Amino acid sequence: MTFAFADPREWVLEITPAIQAQYWQQSQAYTTPSSRWRAYLNQICVYAFLDWTSNLDSIRAIVWCSFPGTPAFWEFVNGTAVLLEEKRIVLIPSEAIDDSELEVPQEWVDIPSWAADYYLAVQVNASGDWVRFWGYTTHQKLKLKGNYDFVDRTYCLDARHLTKDFNAFWVNYQFSKQEPFIRTEPTLQELSTTTAENLLQRLTHNAVTFHRLAVPFTTWSALLENEQWRQQLYQRLKQARYLNLSRWLEGVYDQLWENVEAILGDNIGETAFNFRESLEVEARNVKRAKLINLGEDDSISFVLVIAINWEDNRQACIRVQLHPKPDTLYLPENVKLALQLESGEIIQEVQAREQDNYIQLNRFEGEVGETFSIQVKIENYQIIENFVI
Question: Known InterPro entries for this protein (predicted)?
Fold first, then answer.
């Protein structure tokens, strides 16, 4: 990492393309586009901060509640807590171009076990190749000077109240006395196991979009502060975003996954899946197809086909094909079909050639409960379908 100090009072730290790619892959484990992007920004921000502090004498920084606990934070809340010996710092990354304010989620301020001594404003540029630490404040000043937004549940502190000199930050960190925390929120609720379970079921319903805003803050914060319940909510949301292929064996299908012939008609012809003869048990072979759309205004369409052969009650053999939409003969040459793990690592990939009327991945196997994702990518557009066997 190189350092470019446009302003000697700020930190501007460069991020290599390799680091960007690594954290983008890791962010694919999250359940929504917004949480994946939030995780990506936070990982870059944390990497830059830890790398920078590693070059300072007598400074030892560690991420609070680090992996595997961290993902459950970024699924719901922006920001990362870092421990600098006896003090806690929360890094708040943002893509905002202007430096008008620092916006801190209420969780990092009013949950007692999450509250920090300092809050750092971090700008991450759109391409992710640099981060800029441009200001900071304390918990006390955030509570006294910040404006609380009841809609977003955030504390917003105008830039004029931020300290914009990180040379001063290290002086304050090393020599200042800890300011008293200001608590204005009621004591967090104590949730019974039954109440927590009901809340988990409610929050994992498909109709809930913004989980942190779906219930009163005192209820939400009590659930989030409990590590076990926080992890359960995260894991249940992850499971909910995976299409359960075992249900296909029972004849239960998502409405978007149709009979192959219903979408492709007679065009499937010789492209039909041929499993090894020893595996041919018709009642345990299932093929379904889905029309997927990419591009601006869903202007690019393909047909994704999944075929499963159940070798026994635990093991499945899977094949994946990509076809052009029904009124098109060939796939575009630059479309790619890939198999990727939950971490985002691609373990198989195939690209269409000239006049390919379909492409397919090599057959792969998996056991009940295992997850995988299929990525379809063309130019700057991609879509990912997630499955659990």
Answer: DUF1822
